[in-house]
């Protein structure tokens, strides 16, 4: 449809400052956190109430205009890249925490609340919201739910899905669906909320989230294991889990990543070792002390050159925060950073890590690898320059091989970033024809006109 | 103005623009994004616009120009950026491009810019002359008369609102203080030879901070020089799109100081320091000065940084017990990454108790001349700052930048928070002086 009519329709119920159409605004909402992908929208809308979201979707559905919802735009699979000529539905102004219900260990909030704020507010009440994606300081809870974000604590605490008890969702035609509630048990009807978690904005737009909180752990210890050999680090991880210890964090960084992170954060990370393991245990103080001692022993037996114990909680925090900068810090080495998130069963980790290194060498592509070793989720990161077409072709080839090998090992092409635009061509390989067909049938059931993030995940 | 006819963004080294991988880590650090939640008012958005202009996909427009002047230039995004984007360079070139194309030109704005950037702050002697007249105005009772008359409301461009922000001009400026008194106190067998950048506002309205800086250095085995031929550091010009003037002033200062012969060039204003430390980049393409600028940048030290580096002597006396809180000047913290040193200086002063300020490194809204050009946003930031200051309960706010000092002092009156605003080095100098009184 023509833009003018669309914008006029939106302007009938939105204020001027809620409807952006200038060239400048359209150019800054053309991308998310993903390298290379951008598309110019027709306009950007900034609703402030759920009812406005409903009005926007009803109008777009009637006129068959594509709508791409977004929060802070930190996604890494292109899931919030606008459809050419469509509407960007930016939810950052829906940013109120509606309720912290300590009696039921529940928080109710709007989708534009920053995940960090969810965590901080919970902590202020002695409670804990565990999912902590690398972008926690700026990503929104709505975006986290729509992408079922993971993070550094997945191993012990699970991912966003494990903390969503209920949702309010605006459907494609503008109807408002409430699914789930504050009850721990609820089997009334299909678990519809689960369909929206990780739906990448293709089935509806989340306007309210009911989150589960847990009591905050009383104590925490952070250890750093330094290795001269990547395989030894991977084997340490397996040994820790075999010994029935479930740390809350088991992260690893390779040499390239360590160098970049240290050059930014300057917190004294060793830059002369091949791998670093960042390990955190939390819980009751006695248990934490015992597990930390055990982990230290296992790491040393596993060949760690050195094991450091963070002296204070602040030092531990600095280490974990530094790890969160890994992806962005890698941009110090190359202008274009293509970050992947293949995940394999933990027993296959060592093979996967070695394979990634081999792929880099074979295709002469610089790769930095880090990731959540405890849950098998790796972040092979290709460092390149998008203006170098020949190099980008090699990166493409390398990525393809990494994806194929992950699937071969019984893994997945994406553990926590989503399929988006970036990985949609690899999805059929993992899901097969039946899997793809069911996805498409679900999509049509919820969005028959096809306005919600069309072209994302599959065509 | 830059008359070479080249689009500064198109001709900027592309790798500087490309360094931003739009991850969004800068967003929570940016005061203007925090206030608006608009991408175009975020560092990532501003860089995206610059890149689009460099790529020829976007015209540099008035909207773009206004956005570049809505940016505080606080550089908090640089601290937050893991990728190491050089936002300062991008920002300066973007504003220079705005001026080159005259995107915001208007008779009043042009007049004010010509008069301030092009004339007043381009030569220290002019500033001194104006300072003396202004002091006469402030002392003679004329100021009171003008305030009561309501004449200020008639001034264009909201300049009337600026009047309460005009600092009180000193009776004697730094060079007079130095010649008449301070120079004599240089230690005979000094361990270090350093020279002080007197600054512009610091020089005529905070001359005592310069005197205190010299005093603190002299108590730490330094011979302090005050080069007479020095000029304004040029930060005001650099940050406001007058790169050519900024370069000219940089060359004059490099000639005036001869950093090659010094142990350090000392600067006590966060804004000036951040700017003069990057003369090296400013003059990188200057065949004659590039090498000397490199040496200069190697020698520049913020006063706190230098005192900590030479392991300052703890004063042997006790000042009356009092609580102080520390506000971080953006360009000291984000521009120069000097954050612990001023706190160490404060902790070294016997009797002082340092109370940490919430959001100590969040901009106070002064931001050079931002409080004049963007009064609304500036006052919003100031109110936020003052509410945190009030919560500390401290009666003294220490800060290492004259712009912040003026702004926070104004904030104290505005929000009715009775605070005294001082430079950390003034508290240190007071302690050294008290030592001597104890002896005699």
Describe the structure.
The complex is a heterodimer of chains A (459) and B (440). Chain A has 459 residues and is an alpha+beta fold. Chain A has helices spanning 3-11, 23-28, 50-63, 115-124, 141-146, 154-157, 192-196, 230-242, 255-265, 285-301, 313-324, 326-329, 349-363, 389-408, 427-446, and strands at residues 19-20, 43-45, 67-70, 87-90, 97-101, 106-109, 127-128, 164-170, 176-180, 205-212, 214-215, 219-227, 249-254, 275-283, 306-309, 336-339, 366-372, 377-384. In chain A, helix 8 (230-242) crosses helix 10 (285-301). Chain A is globular, with a radius of gyration of 22 Å. The mean pLDDT of chain A is 95. Among the domains of chain B are: 14-100, Alpha-helical ferredoxin (Fumarate Reductase Iron-sulfur Protein, Chain B, domain 2, Orthogonal Bundle); 174-309, Glutathione S-transferase Yfyf (Class Pi), Chain A, domain 2, CATH 1.20.1050. Chain B starts with 13 loop residues before the first helix and ends with a helix. Chain B is α/β, with parallel strands linked by helices and 440 residues long. Classes of the chains: A alpha+beta (459), B alpha/beta (440). The A-B interface holds A 20, 22-25, 27-33, 35, 46, 72-74, 92-93, 95, 114, 116, 135, 137-139, 260-261, 263-265, 325-329, 331-332, 335-337, 385 and B 15, 18-19, 21-25, 27-28, 37-40, 42, 44-45, 48-49, 52, 57-59, 61, 63-64, 67, 81-84.
